[in-house]
Amino acid sequence: MSSTSFTSVSFNTASSWNLKRREGGKAYVRCGSAASSENTVRVGVLGASGYTGSEVLRLLANHPQFGVALLTADRKAGQPIASVFPHLATQKLPDLIAVKDADFSHVDAVFCCLPHGTTQEIIRGLPNHLKIVDLSADFRLRDISEYEEWYGQPHRAPELQKEAIYGLTEILREEIRNARLVANPGCYPTSIQIPLVPLIKAKLIDIKNIIIDAKSGVSGAGRSVKENLLYTEVAEGINSYGVTRHRHVPETEQGLSDAAHSKVTISFTPHLMPMIRGMQSTIYVEMAPGVSTEDLYQQLKRSYENEEFAVLLGNGVVPRTHSVRGTNYCLINVFPDRIPGRAIIISVIDNLVKGASGQALQNLNLMMGFPENLGLHYQSLFP
Fold first, then answer.
1. Hey, CA dihedral for 38, 40, 45, 46, is it positive or negative?
2. How would you class 154 by CB atoms within 10 Å of its CB: exposed for 0-12, middle for 13-18, buried for 19 or more?
3. Which residues, in sequence order, are CB contacts of 303 under 8 Å at separation 6+?
4. How far apart are CA 285 and CA 236, in angstroms?
5. What is the per-residue pLDDT across 275-300, written as a single tens digit (0 to 9) for each?
6. Would you say 97 and 76 are in contact if contact means Cβ atoms under 8 Å apart?
7. What is d(CA 41, CA 65) in angstroms, rounded to the nearest whole number?
8. Beta-carbon contacts of residue 37 (< 8 Å; ≥ 6 apart)
């Protein structure tokens, strides 16, 4: 075979697996281009120069059905993706363009990875034929007045908010399957709701006394340059932030209140950790009268025994962020507190994958009628 020839690898779906290019005896897996197959779903990534955009592209490199047709990044327009993210240099991808120059006539679906506050008007202007997964917070809160209160600006697309489906896959799978616009959940709300929603629905815990101590890697703050995220500001220390006013609070309370059919208010404090990625939520709950930690464990086991990405660990095994690095898994476990009647729930995710781009891909798989795990069979990078 010549150094420039291509070969396809068979896969157990209707279309071929990603193309591989052989150069100098080495095989490079390339993200399938939109022209790879007539059955390929043509995907656009808006805001491809940020961390969630780059994670979407990393995950799509192993997806058998999605091909990248469009990449936007206004400040990097005209540049190849390799100049922005050298780790993506082996993928065959289109150059970056400005959103205003994008032609969506040859695109079937988009991942919108733009900052909060900029997404509503852009999505409102997109063609109606597109399936959209929005990774910002702009469509997560059903109450647009609550959005204005927490995000400091009025909602610019209230008519779209009415059709947006909240994309917590394990909880709202059927609604997501039939959606055109999905609001992908935030990282903290994902790590909190996955363990708590089944317990609240089963009335096993007191909804008035939920305390959450959460910790995140620095990538959760995005890629823009900020003084408090400089290496010398973050390394060798931890700090709380957004105390009582973190923007993920109303989103989390919205989901928990839906599960309880009544208003849930949480005590939530996030912390910035000197690591790149990873998130842990340690949740302290008061159990309902007569309920034990074993009851909580068994309820989570029943709820998630057939789920691929929400995983209840064996008794006594403590979830670790190292165990989910680069993956779409949420690992959970339950422990008895020293205080009678209370329990400690620990949940870990990769904030960029299950907390963002991985769950977004899981959702788009559902929306396009594919198995939701396509492109997500990554094991943790360890050590």
1. positive
2. exposed
3. 198, 310
4. 30
5. 999 999 999 999 999 999 999 999 99
6. no
7. 6
8. 15, 16, 67
Per DSSP, the three-state class of 81 is helix
Average pLDDT, the chain: 91
Phi, psi of 222 (to 5 degrees): 90, -175
CA angle 50, 54, 57 (to 5 degrees): 145
Distances in whole angstroms, Cα of residue 299 to Cα of each of 226, 283, 334: 42, 16, 11
Kindly report the length of the chain: 383
* Domain extents in the chain: 3-185+356-367, 188-351
Q: What is the pLDDT of residues 96-142, one digit of tens each?
A: 999 999 999 999 999 999 999 999 999 999 999 999 999 999 999 99
**CATH architecture for the domain at 3-185+356-367:** 3-Layer(aba) Sandwich (3.40)
**Alpha-carbon torsion angle 295, 301, 304, 308, nearest 10:** 150
Q: Could you list the active site residues?
A: 187
* Angle at which helices 144-151 and 248-260 cross, to 10°: 150
Report the CATH fold assignment for 188-351. Dihydrodipicolinate Reductase; domain 2 (3.30.360)
Phi-psi region of 87 (alpha: psi -120 to 50; beta: other; left: phi over 0): alpha
pLDDT given for residue 187 in this prediction: 98
- What region, left, alpha or beta, does residue 203 occupy, with left being phi > 0 and alpha being psi -120 to 50 degrees? left
Dump strand ranges (E) for 210-261. 211-216, 239-240
Tell how strand 267-272 and strand 239-240 pair up.
Answer: antiparallel
pTM, rounded to two decimals: 0.90
Share of the chain above pLDDT 90, in %: 85
Is residue 172 within 8 Å of 367, Cβ to Cβ?
A: no
Q: Which helix (H) or strand (E) holds 310?
A: strand 310-312
Buried b / exposed e over 285-318, threshold 16 CB at 10 Å, is bbbeeebebebbbebbeebbeeeebbbbbeeeee
Residue 63 · residue 361 · CB < 8 Å? yes
